[in-house]
Specification:
The structure is a single chain. With about 525 residues, the protein is of the alpha/beta class. Helix content is about 40%, strand content about 15%. It folds into 2 domains: about 30-430, Alkaline Phosphatase, subunit A (3-Layer(aba) Sandwich); about 445-530, Arylsulfatase, C-terminal domain. It has helices spanning about 1-15, 20-25, 55-60, 75-85, 90-95, 110-115, 165-180, 205-210, 230-235, 240, 255-260, 270-280, 280-300, 305-340, 375, 405-410, 425-430, 500-515, 520-530; strands at about 30-35, 65, 120-125, 135-140, 150-155, 155-160, 185-190, 350-355, 380-385, 395, 440-445, 455-460, 465-470, 475-480. The strands form 2 sheets. It has a 10-stranded mixed β-sheet with strand order 6-5-4-3-7-1-8-9-2-10, with helices on both faces. A 4-stranded antiparallel β-sheet has the order 11-12-13-14, covered by helices on one side. Helix 7 (about 165-180) runs parallel beside helix 14 (about 305-340) and helix 8 (about 205-210) packs across helix 14. The N and C termini lie far apart (about 80 Å). It binds 2-deoxy-6-O-sulfo-2-(sulfoamino)-alpha-D-glucopyranose and calcium ion (CA). Calcium ion binds near residues 38, 356 and 357.
Length: about 525
């Protein structure tokens, strides 16, 4: 009986061997890498639904895996992107901060995909100082880009498109997917949003909705930074003190003068004026129709507001605009996922959603990122891989943005260069925890002194602890017990109860510095490069 069944199967197999190359080619999976800019995991309902519902992004988690301890190597935009592309720590690819140049001799993983016969495309915000290599077709925002009526650098020069940037990036991506892609070839697509980066300008449909909402304040909004070292106290990212009244809270520049408000920075008023100047007449009218009444209300209330009330007001303004921007990102993810369904592409396409780092949404009174503390150190990571990843699964392993390159290469069956420093996440994605042996990650932040004034530091993070060394103009150590103090309010470094933990982690940190080829010489090299330019 068995033989009878096998014979036709063998015959069929022989019949298709002639076109086995084609079968193999078709079977190579597509990869879609979706990344937004500064998207905090606290603002994805798959992680926590206290701020916003993101049903489309959540779909990736529902049908795939959510990583609860995914993190970056250096919590800032361009360095993070260079790490993703090279699979290396910043001290090796050179892009240690937003300004020092990338070492363009470094191999980036799209080059390897292109050489292996994948078609490659990239739309949106790349922001790492160079055009991408190994990309057949790209349309990327110059630098930070704009929220409305964006310009793009393309393979054929500059273009300008009218519209709301998140929607424009969606349309460029969908146009490529529908009309420009070679359907015979596997593809690697980068779908990269500018939103929700500062200064948080939502689309009309969303500012109409989100400016009516009120959001819960985080427990540490009024943090006084006791219990930690000087870095937290001296950072300039407090919502009340450092967020721009015009540029961020969207007051009219002249209202600051009228109310006697001192601008938070020397670009505070200019930041909002630049936005007004970019709007078309129609966009400006729609904006003013919603924001003028908010400004008028603030005008009346401001003279009697306490500082605490000002903080609460600024926090609500921040959340309304920040989360409004995310609503458009979530919709854009939905558009792409639906298209994959319609075209029968879902099964053979890996979809990844992440951000270039995390972000503070009022925790510790902050906005922005940079610190090794959780809200900026961790980043959202959701991966859907039908047939391989168990739907609705989670992983709390210490995975890093440095791992993406090797993961994608592994999935596509392309050899990774020996000097990449990540680990393929494929074993974790397959649920094979034994195939994964990392228990700690290394972190290093450099951009200081600079905007937001977060001191230079490096550190080690395990699932249980976090040990950081702040250096350059200080020599301070901080230890956090991640399980007992998840909000990271108490530095335990000098607590004798943790003496053994400190000793062990210091040794492990030294070992990681050696393993990843970081050193005091390199710390000094990057200080010199930075301060002497
Ligand atoms: C701008 C922002 C900062 C932000 C940096 C880096 N200020 O300078 O708040 O930290 O970008 O952001 S703004 O007033 O110009 O918006 S990053 O995402 O590119 O690293
Ligand atoms: Ca960023």
């Amino acid at each position: 009986m068995r033989i009878l069944v096998l014979v036709p199967l063998v015959a069929f197999a022989m019949l298709i061997t002639g076109c086995s190359e084609q079968v193999k080619e078709k079977a190579r999976p597509n990869i879609i890498f979706i990344m937004s800019d500064d998207h905090a995991y606290q603002a994805i309902s798959a992680y926590s639904d206290h701020l916003i519902q993101t049903p489309n992004i959540d779909r990736i988690a529902d049908e795939g895996m959510l990583f609860s301890n995914a993190c970056v190597t250096n919590s800032i935009c361009a360095p993070s992107r260079a790490t993703i592309l090279t699979g290396k720590h910043c001290h090796l690819h050179g892009k240690i901060d937003n300004r020092v140049p990338f070492d363009t001799t470094q191999i980036t993983f799209p080059q390897l995909f292109q050489a292996a016969g994948y078609q490659t495309a990239m739309f949106g915000k790349l922001h790492f100082g160079n055009n991408p290599k190994g990309i057949d077709e790209f349309k990327i925002l110059p630098g930070q880009g704009s929220y409305y009526n964006p310009d793009f650098n393309t393979n054929d020069g500059k273009i300008h498109i009218e519209g709301y940037t998140t929607d424009v990036i969606r349309d460029l991506t969908m146009d490529w997917m529908k009309n420009r892609r070679d359907i015979e070839k596997p593809f690697l697509l980068f779908y990269l949003h500018k939103a929700p980066h500062r200064e948080w300008l939502p689309a009309e449909r969303h500012f109409k909705e989100f400016t009516k909402k009120t959001f819960p304040e985080p427990a540490t909004l009024f943090d006084d930074y006791q219990g930690r070292g000087s870095a937290a106290k001296e950072a300039e990212m407090n919502i009340l003190i450092h967020q721009n009244w015009a540029g961020d809270s969207k007051l009219r520049p002249e209202v600051l003068d009228e109310l006697g408000i001192v601008p938070s920075s020397n670009w505070d008023k200019r930041a909002m004026q630049n936005q007004y100047n970019r709007f078309t007449e129609e966009q400006l009218a729609a904006w003013n129709a919603v924001y003028d009444p908010i400004i008028d209300d603030f005008r009346e209330r401001y003279p009697s507001m306490t500082e605490k009330e000002q903080m609460s007001w600024k926090y609500q303004r921040y959340m309304q605009d920040y989360l409004g921007c995310i609503a458009a990102v979530d919709e854009s993810v939905g558009t792409l996922l639906e298209y994959l369904d319609e075209e029968g592409l879902t099964e053979n396409t890996i979809v990844v959603y992440t951000s270039d780092q995390g972000f503070y949404l009022g925790e510790h009174g902050w906005f922005d990122k940079r610190f090794i503390y959780d809200e900026s150190f961790k980043t959202p990571l959701l991966v859907r891989w039908p047939g391989t990843v168990e739907p609705g699964s989670t992983s709390d392993q210490m995975v890093q943005n440095m791992d993406f390159a090797q993961t994608f290469l592994d999935i596509a069956g392309i050899d990774a260069p020996g000097d990449m420093q990540g680990e393929s996440l494929v074993p974790l994605l397959k649920g094979d925890i034994k195939g994964w042996d990392r228990d700690a990650v290394y972190y290093h932040y450099y951009e200081y002194p600079a905007v937001h004034m977060v001191k230079r530091h490096y550190g080690i993070v395990t699932r249980e602890y976090k040990l950081a060394h702040f250096y350059y103009d200080v020599d301070e150590w901080e230890l956090y017990d991640r399980r007992n103090d998840p909000m990271e309010m108490q530095n335990e470094y000098d607590n004798p109860e943790y003496a053994e933990v400190v000793k062990e982690l210091k040794q492990k940190l030294a070992d990681l510095r050696v393993k990843y080829k970081d050193s005091e010489e390199l710390d000094q090299k990057y200080i010199d490069l930075y301060t002497k330019r």
